[in-house]
Amino acid sequence: MTQTLPTAPTLRADARRNxxxxxxxxxxxxxxxxxxxxxxxxxREAAVGxxxxxxxxxxxxxxxxxxxxxxxxxxxxxxxxxxxTLPSDEALAQWLHRSLDYLATKRGLGAGLMTLLQDNPExxxxxxxxxxxxxxxxxxxxxxxxxxxxxxxxxxxxxxxGGIYSAPASPDWQARSGRVLHILMDGLRRR
Length: 191
What we know:
Elements: H1 13-33, H2 39-45, H3 50-56, H4 60-85, H5 88-119, H6 121-129, H7 131-145, H8 154-165, H9 173-188
Helix pairs in contact: 1-4, 1-5, 4-5, 5-6, 5-7, 5-9, 7-8, 8-9
């Protein structure tokens, strides 16, 4: 059955604040505890009733989808901001480090996200168009500027990231992955 994600309708200011707070709390709790966290805990932490949560997000999958879409869009916006303000190799490096936060959220969404992606063409389009497209754009810009090696492409970087991102979860996973990203960038930069 194909699902669509709930969009944020025009809301009163207080309803908008409630919805935004629910998404922020869900993002943090999904990252820390996984998608099986009780929705009642999310509502309580967001200081709203469970009915308010269900008015905005009728199902757990609807909330997961909005969290994923928001995180993907935020990562894309960061890519634009960094590309406009930093040298291309530094923009790429900082964006890859920020992608670790994105990945931490994605890991928290886990199997729930995979199931949702299978059943939701809109979310599939977000997934396919977001990270790979931005990575390609940033790698190509750094190659054009001569700040990274000309003999690499985004698929090479994606392949290297696969190893970093598939490392087993541990308390120091993010810090260790950040160090490996520094090593990756050292290898990509021209000498």
